[in-house]
Amino acid sequence: MLKEILVIDDNPDIRFLICNILKEQHYKVRSAANYDQAVIEINKRLPDLAIIDIKLDKPDKDGIDLLKLINKNNKLIPVIMISGHATVQIAVEAIRLGAYEFIEKPFSKEKILNYVNRGLESASLKKEKDIIENKLFHSFELIGKSPSIIKVKKIVEKLSTSESRVLISGPTGSGKELVARKIHKNSLRCKEPFVIINAALLKEKTYEKELFGEEFEDGNISFGALERANKGTLLIDEVSEIPYETQANVLRVLIDQKFKRINGKRDINVNIRLISSTSKNLDSLVRDKEFREDLYHRLNVMPIELSLLSSRTEDIPLLIDYFKNKLSEINGVQNPDIDINNDNLYTYHWPGNVRELRNLVERITILSSNESKKKINQIIDDVLNPSSEIQNNKNLLEQSFQSPLKEAREHFEKEYLTTQLKKHHGNISKTADFIGMERSALHRKLKLLGIKGIN
Asked: What is the mean pLDDT of residues 364-372?
């Protein structure tokens, strides 16, 4: 496919010269004669490379502002800045802000082609690096022989030729994102974008901006998840956290396949496959009028349910073997000798599910790959069944027997959450992941129990 280059210069002779040089080399070329035209061209479609004159027609806007606009949308796009009135300060500032190269006018044909070729090659290498890293960290397979996992695998296989919307439900850490990625990878959209938006991590006032994007008075555009996922797949993680009012707008997009950006006047048409995931019971939320029933039925065309790891312990040996081989390869270390017959692996309740097991294997792989099986067993026992925690729980239980049920429950929750927060150095996200609770729900629980921030 021909590489597309956008040339922005308000001098018609120089613009014409650069465009002709590039066309002779069989590049696809677009051009803009002023700042406003440039913004329109950038927002219409991002190029593979841009050549931008610093001094344009506006006294308060220049090529540096266009460089920032391109970088905001995609930092991998190389931008070559040109100027006939350059200073060292301007050149340094342009490079600091992300320009690939800076050229002073007048310039030779050989110089500009050299920079263009190098810029495109550099962008291609960076893109390949990102793809390789993405594959390393997101290429995990669905591992297991339990009936529940076999059922999930069969559904994913059947969905490969389907465009149906999918709702994946399951506890935190059970592999909902992995299943969504597998569905996308096996689909006809596999070469198109896979975009994730985590509704549990957004602030209440930013949902619509993150989904639909926004247009600004200066002509700049912030692209939302729907637009970035066009022709591909959009995963809305923890879809239950979308505010009730915003749910109606999401429903409208599913019906019409179009929307308007915030402050926008024209419709944006999109063709996406929507996958949603939740760790909550959406049926209950619908009954409690906390989630729209009409949206629920639109999302829940093909349901997939993932089980607790503690309910499918027959998968634990397979998961350990898989993770230790994969993580040893990724981290470039020796494969650890993990005893899959350690009783604690099967009696532990795994609140963080498969993610928690993977984290344990990764910890052993990185820190203890050269240790003996006995030493690794001790590490597993210390992590899954620490003696100090047993004694604390015993003391707490004895104290609880002397209190009313509600008071005993609150006392236990307060002690338990305080201990977990201390273990994770006050990090709410890590604590929520470990205990198998949503971050927003943990915030509410801490506030209810009067637990302050812990350092």
From this structure: 82
